Structures are given as C-alpha cells and as structure tokens.
Amino acid sequence: MNWNDLDFFPVMGEKLTAENTLRLDFTAHNQALEAVNLSDTQEFDQFVFAQLKSAGKKYGIGGYLEKRSIYRRSGVFATESAEFRNIHLGVDVWTAAGARIFAPLAGKVHSFQDNTGFGNYGPTIILEHEVEGKPLFSLYGHLALQDLQGLEVGKAYQAGELLCHVGPFPENGDWPPHLHFQLMWDLGENWGDYPGVAAEKDLEYYRENCPDPNLILGCKILNSI
C-alpha cells in the first residue's frame, strides 16, 4: 500500500508541524522523569504541559514503538517481568482537554466503551475504514465521557467530521490530557478496546498489525528522528 497516495484530514483539525508541536520523550533516556511522581496525575500533568509552555507549542507528540518508563505508574501494565508491557503501539498527541478530534478518513463506528481504571484508556472509540479494499481500524483513547453519549455502532463519519474530544483526568483513564491514536489491521475479538502497549516478546506481531499512525498524522518532526 502506498500511503503517500492517500489523502487524510488532520486528526486534530490542523497539521502537526514543527511550529506547533514538540516531540516528547517518555523513555528511560529522559532523566527528568526520575524527579516526577508519575502516580500523581496532577504532578505528571504539570510536567508535560510545562514543557509545552516553555517551548511555546500547542501539542506534544511521540510514542510509536517507544520503550517507555512511565508505565510503572499503573498496575494495568505491571505483570511478571517477561509479560511487562512497555512498548507503545500508538502515537500520543498531548494537548489541552476539550481539544477537538476529527475523523481522518471516512469510516464507521466499529465499537466503543469506557475502559475504566487508573492508567487505562478511559472513553475509547474504534472506527472501521476501508483502504484500497482492505479493512483498517483506528482507535481513539483517553476521550471525554460525553463523546460516548448517544454514540451508536455503525454510525458513519466522513473525513473531516468532528468525532470526539481530548478528555480531562480522571475520566480519561487518569492521564494528563492527550489523544492515544492507533491503527490496527486486525482487531481479533476486541471490542471498544485493543492493547496500546505491548511486551517486548510480542513486538514483532504488533509491529505488523499496528502500522505507524504517523502515516496518517503526517507529522514531519517524527519522521526526522
């Protein structure tokens, strides 16, 4: 598939560029994380948005296949060492709660639900698309609860149509406000949910099933890494 031949509407309503977007690093290489109590969402929130304010940016971005250290904040990810999930499968767009999120291409609602629990997705919507005759699913996590009200499976969206909003904490799974945007070729039996973080032992499967969301987002600061 030649993604460059496809036309996508900006998920955040505007293109993510070097002028409005800052790459954020949540790996162990970012030693500043050591001074942050990540289990305190208010403190974590202040850490994230202080960086954006200092850089004069509206959005923070990053995360695809990033080996993250921040998942120690939640038991959702902490299992036996071989099963510990710390490889991020989506791209996160960190920005103010209430920011609007748009459908990047035509599709319909496959499923949705509120994935409750500290560190989980919170309100989540999955759209089903057809791209060159092949099904493709897009997931939007950490939304506002109001986005699920009145939503119906099968509801159609056109590219550029308002889909949902970045949710506030704690209703968004208790994270600093951001969109978790992820692509999947195959959902399996998942409904309103799909792993957004993988264990290293499962990375090859998820790398194949979850293509880089930046193929749709088109943020060039990610391509320059």
From TrEMBL:
The keyword Transferase does not apply. SUPFAM superfamilies: Duplicated hybrid motif (SSF51261). The keyword Metal-binding does not apply. Coiled coil: none annotated. InterPro entries: Cell_wall_metabolism_enzyme, Dup_hybrid_motif, M23ase_b-sheet_dom. Residues 87-185 form the M23ase beta-sheet core domain. Gene3D superfamilies: Glucose Permease (Domain IIA) (2.70.70.10). It comes from the Bacteria. Keywords: Signal. Pfam families: Peptidase_M23. PANTHER family: L-ALA--D-GLU ENDOPEPTIDASE, PEPTIDASE-RELATED. This is M23ase beta-sheet core domain-containing protein. It comes from Algoriphagus confluentis. The lineage of its organism: Bacteria, Pseudomonadati, Bacteroidota, Cytophagia, Cytophagales.
